[in-house]
Design brief:
- The chain has 306 residues and is mainly α.
- Helices cover 71% and strands 0% of the residues.
- It has 14 helices and no strands.
- The chain is flat and about 70 Å long.
- The N terminus is likely disordered.
Length: 306
């Protein structure tokens, strides 16, 4: 009788650990630190929006009697009904005014900034550098500092309390001119322009049919910046407009907020104002989500090209 020898297996040796490359460990620590910082920034910026969503679902009583960062009884539909029916539905009128002001101003400012930036980048003319330096300086001037002189100018022209009092000042975008000048310097090839001139195309036709198509990502970035700036503009409409039917959303909601905070028997509008604020930011969120592919490209190009 012979015993069958069982085969013995030897454990596989662990593969030799690859030595860490020089500088790899510090890069990992830096990446982890940046990730933590970015998450903290993300939470910081999303926190007000989260509070706005939670508060817009509460009634006036629940706003002051429940925990502020969590939901209570769902009252969102009643709040929305109050927003769109209070004062004969003036909120819809304010929303339409905001759309008129923002879309008209953003499109106009984008066209002007694109044309000006293209001209500064591709044409040499007397005083061009000095004029562009003045535009760069205008970027540093806050718009609130120009509100009072603008009001005096429009009052002299009898344009206050009109739509033009908001649209015309919003057409000026020094930052848009700067961004489009930087973007057009590399996005539009000079040899392509020379080829178009050799084929007999005029300068306006070259800009419209050749250059503008190449400038679309930068133009969309300027469009979004102008759209947000005009949509959120509060001080200029406050001093320019007197008629409530011409108010944009920020001024109208601030008027409701003043009514709610006045007390002395006035109607409690806190939940209405909060829900109206939530509704007012939805168009901007949709615009950013739809156009993010263009504006990210334009913003990145404007940040690295000189």
């Amino acid at each position: 009788m012979t015993a069958t020898a069982t085969p013995t297996t030897t454990p596989l040796a662990d593969p030799p650990r690859r030595p860490a490359r020089r500088g790899e460990e510090p890069r990992r620590r830096t990446s982890l630190l940046l990730t933590v910082v970015m998450v903290a920034c993300l939470l910081y910026f999303l926190f007000p929006l989260y509070w706005l969503v939670v508060a817009s679902t509460k009634s006036n009583a629940d706003l002051f009697s429940t925990f502020g960062l969590w939901f209570a009884d769902l009252n969102l539909l009643d709040n929305l009904r109050s927003v769109f029916t209070f004062q004969d539905g003036v909120f819809a009128r304010w929303a339409l005014n905001s759309v008129i002001y923002s879309v008209t101003s953003a499109v106009g400012a984008t066209v002007l900034a694109t044309a000006a930036g293209y001209a500064f980048a591709k044409y040499d003319f007397p005083g061009g550098k000095a004029l562009f330096s003045v535009i760069l300086g205008a970027v540093m001037v806050p718009t609130t500092a120009l509100a009072l002189p603008t009001y005096l100018l429009f009052a002299r022209a009898e344009l206050t309390d009109t739509y033009w009092a908001i649209i015309l000042p919003s057409l000026v975008s020094p930052f848009g001119v700067y961004l489009m000048r930087v973007y057009a310097a590399d996005a539009v090839d000079a040899s392509m322009l020379e080829a178009a001139r050799v084929d007999g195309a005029g300068e306006l036709r070259i800009f419209v049919t050749v250059a503008f198509r190449l400038l679309v990502p930068g133009a969309v970035t300027v469009l979004l910046f102008s759209l947000v700036a005009t949509w959120n503009n509060y001080f200029l409409p406050l001093i320019m407009l007197n008629s409530p039917d011409k108010f944009p959303l920020p001024v109208g909601l601030a008027q409701w907020q003043s009514t709610a905070a006045a007390g002395s028997g006035s109607q409690a509008l806190f939940s209405t104002v909060i829900t109206g604020s939530l509704v007012s930011v939805i168009p901007l969120v949709v615009a950013f989500l739809v156009l993010q592919r263009f504006w990210q490209t334009g913003l990145a190009a404007g940040g690295v090209k000189a």
